[in-house]
Design goal:
Oligomer: single chain
Number of helices: 10
Largest sheet: none
Radius of gyration: 22 Å
Order of helices and strands: HHHHHHHHHH
């Protein structure tokens, strides 16, 4: 009950702060009643881009259900609890990566629309490099101090410590390269189809099929292996698509889009 109340209060505080900022007059974007009325043309674009994240979360939820059922069957309550701890520790490391991805998207989207493809490539490359540094260092820290980190959640429960130790070593084995999945270049440039495909690839193409196959042969170890194997193939797939997408960008000469910025002209960026 206390955790639920804390969550509710934190959301209220954040909402109040955001409303105060947008209504104070200091923000570039203003809250106006006329903008609350839905515009179908705008909503269509929002849904096309947002569908990728929505379907990704939906597929993740389905995967988590299957994953928990397998963990409960082959490893019991401690294995299920271990997954919760592992995912929490992993998310703490992934939060900066998610922030980098969110900060990268408007820069890439703006410069892609403006034809500044060298900036698109540089921004995407810097985001990927910084994210990989974070996930690699985070993975090393998780392996070196796993007992101390897990103990923050479990105390000195030896059975749970052992379950987490095994899970951390296998389930997150490919953690250093997961940034390839998290830097959502195709979502930033508005390519919803490729973005949806890549976001769903890990769960639907790799992890769920593996969860239906590996545990029957390798038991609990097979369940943990599904995380590492699916991360490897999903990251490899995302990396190939991203390289292909960046390679397709050909810098246009200034004369080709100079009229776009001529005084009095209307840019497609609005």
């Amino acid at each position: 009950a206390g955790s639920a109340l804390a969550t509710f209060c934190s959301q209220c505080i954040i909402t109040t702060l955001l409303l105060f900022y947008f209504m104070s007059g200091s923000s570039v974007l203003k809250l106006r009643f006329k903008n609350i009325i839905p515009d179908l043309s705008i909503l269509k674009g929002i849904i096309n881009i947002g569908a990728s994240s929505f379907l990704d979360k939906l597929a993740s939820s389905v995967t988590l259900i299957i994953l928990n059922k397998n963990l409960a069957y082959y490893g019991g309550d401690y294995a299920v609890a271990a997954l919760g701890i592992i995912q929490t520790l992993a998310m703490l490391i992934m939060l900066p990566v998610i922030g980098i991805n969110q900060g990268m998207q408007p820069i890439v989207g703006y410069n892609y629309g403006a034809g500044n493809f060298h900036r698109v490539k540089r921004t995407a490359g810097m985001a990927l490099l910084a994210s990989t540094y974070i996930t690699t260092i985070g993975f090393i820290l998780l392996q070196l101090f796993q007992k101390h980190l897990v103990a923050m959640f479990s105390g000195q429960n030896e059975a749970l410590l052992q379950a987490c130790s095994k899970g951390l070593g296998i389930f997150l084995f490919m953690f250093p390269i997961v940034s390839l999945q998290r830097i959502e270049y195709f979502e930033a440039i508005g390519n919803a189809k490729v973005s949806i495909f890549l976001n769903l690839s890990k769960q639907l193409m790799f992890q769920i099929p593996l969860l239906l196959f590996l545990p029957g042969y390798y038991g609990l170890t097979g369940v943990w292996l599904t995380g590492a194997i699916s991360d490897f193939f999903a990251s490899l797939l995302a990396g190939v698509f991203m390289l292909w997408g960046l390679f397709q960008l050909k810098e246009k000469p200034k004369s080709a889009y100079g009229k776009l910025y001529a005084p009095g002209s209307r840019s497609r960026l609005g």
